[in-house]
Amino acid sequence: MEVQLKAVEDFKTLEPGFIYEVETTERNGELELLEFANNYENAYQSGLLSEDEFEIRKEKLLVSDDQEEGSWETIYFDANGKIRDTYLPEDVIWDKYASNEHFTKRYYYVQTPFFLGDVVYDLGYGEYGIVMANADKEEKRKTDEFLKKWGADESDIEVRICTFSDGEWTGHLHASPYYLEYAHLEDNDPRKDIFNSAKYLMHHGKADVSTLWWEVERAKEKYDYEQENWNEE
Known about the structure:
This protein has 233 residues and is of the alpha+beta class. It is built from six helices and ten strands; from the N terminus they run H-E-E-H-E-E-E-H-E-E-H-E-E-E-H-H. The chain folds into two domains: 2-100, no CATH class; 119-232, no CATH class.
C-alpha cells in the first residue's frame, strides 16, 4: 500500500516528454477526450467539470511500438473526483519505488555450505555446475558486508555457478541457494575429471592459465571417450 500511494503521488509530477490526457466514458462505452494538460491540477479540474466518471492518463510522447509497454499510467476517478482504480504497471512501480528500499526486495544473507570449486546440482534448472566464488568463510563475510554497504537487492542472494551439460561448459547461471545441493557423482562417472580440473583452475587462478585450461580440455576429451564407452556398457 505504501508503494502504491507513493506511485500515485509521483503520478502528479509531469516529467519532460510526458503529457496528461483527460477522458470520460460516453454512453456507448467509448472514451471521449476532454483535454490535454501539462500539469496535474488542470487535468483534475477538467475531469471534475465533466460531472461524470473520468480518467487521467499520463502518457509518454513519441514512443515507438516496441517501447510502448510501461510508457503510460492511468488513474480512474468517480464523478466526485475520488480515486476508484489505477493502472500503474507493477514492474514499473517496483523498479522505481521499491527495489532495495522495500523490505520484500532487500538483500539478506543466506548461509550455505558451498564454497569456491564445490560441485553442485541445481534442482531448479536441472544442471550440474561448480561454485564460482567465496573460497572460505572470511571471503563470504567480506562479500556479505560489501553487498549490504552498496545497497544490494534480493537477487544478490543467488550463488554463481559455472554450468556443465552434455560434455560442454555452458556458461554460468545465478542459482537460488534454496535449490542447490552437493552433486553426487559415482567414482566411475567421467564428469569427475572435468570438475576436478575446473576446481584446480579456480583455486590457482594466478598460475599459468593456458596450462590449467589445457588440463580442463584434456579432461573433456577423456570425458567424451569414457562417456561413449559408458553408454555402450
